Amino acid sequence: MNILYELKNIKHYFDGKKVLDVEHLTLEKNQIVGFFGPNGSGKSTLFSILAFICKPIEGEIFLENLNKIDLQMKKDIVVLPQNPYLLKRTVFDNIAYGLKIRGEVENIDKKVEEALSMVGLETSFSKRKWSQLSGGEAQRVALAARLILKPKILILDEPTSGVDTNSAQLIKEAILHAKQKYNTTIFISSHDYNWLNHISDKKIALFQGHLFENKNINLLFSPWQKDDNGCLVKVFMDNQRLLIPNSQSKKRDSILMINSSDINISKDSFLLGNQNSLLGSIISIFQDEKEEYLQVEFSISGVIFNCSISKAKFESQKLFPGDKIVVSFDLNNIKWL
Ligand SMILES: Nc1ncnc2c1ncn2[C@@H]1O[C@H](COP(=O)(O)OP(=O)(O)OP(=O)(O)O)[C@@H](O)[C@H]1O
Questions:
Q1: Ligand 1 within 6 A of 19 CB?
Q2: Which atom of ligand 1 is found nearest the CA of 45?
Q3: Under a CB-based contact definition with an 8 Å cutoff, are residues 192 and 160 in contact?
Q4: Nearest alpha carbon, ligand 1 atom 28
Q5: For position 60, what pLDDT does the model report?
Q6: Which of 262, 198, 254 is nearest to 226 (CA)?
Q7: Residues in CB range of 181: below 8 A, 6 or more apart
């Protein structure tokens, strides 16, 4: 594994209130990591820590095995904040600003043109004033001003807030382009969970400052339907239904988080009659970090889940990739994002 960051026992507080509590987190190079979480769950705080803008009150953060970074390393980390600020000048001045500050003025016209094209804006935009841009265009100009720096690490805090679907798509393409062309490692938060889900190589959920990684959790995304009692129901493509009890107050764009340990799989087909037991099929089985367990990836009508099973169960049930299984969800410990 190509580890870029390692965080150990990070705790951060504001006014004595704990807002972040990360026991251990590693982040790999050249991945797009999506951070999902409701308002106030600690995403921006975590981003400030990853950018070395804010020092956590407790714990250690290592970037490429170093827990102190110099100015050069700091330059490798570029942040697009939640409400990016544009200079009250032209688009060209805004995009060229970072390079000029760094004294890298060679071929600057061409570089600005390239950055504009990456975010789907024509060269003619460079002459526009900051005040002549729509919200989506302004956001893309702010992104272009970061991409021109070809950053090693790019942190995007809500890059799609307030933009339409066309701009969101162009932002997505620019991000994928940066990953491919510059090998940039990218951390993103967005409340547009579907958008974020599609772009992320790795997904991390934050809930009240605690972090849940996708090998231990399953995130179930919208769309949701409502049953006659107003509870949310996930209707899979094959019409199987997962009814979430006591979910009347939840919105249809919510994300449901189910711990892998709250999912049971079995070949005992009689279980299929139980509530919240659905039919799935195994995709892959691999060794868990804990020796006596195996990690199973399976699909319910194309939606991918994971859970872990003991070696003893694996052997007694004779589970193999491709097998049909009954998946039983224990929904007592679910969390909503
Ligand atoms: N400078 C600050 N002073 C005091 N409290 C703060 C400060 N910054 C953040 N907080 C609090 O820390 C908690 C986490 O905030 P943070 O901005 O990290 O969450 P977030 O997940 O990014 O939220 P959002 O999705 O709304 O941007 C919140 O309760 C917030 O009110």
A1: yes
A2: 18
A3: yes
A4: 40
A5: 96
A6: 254
A7: none
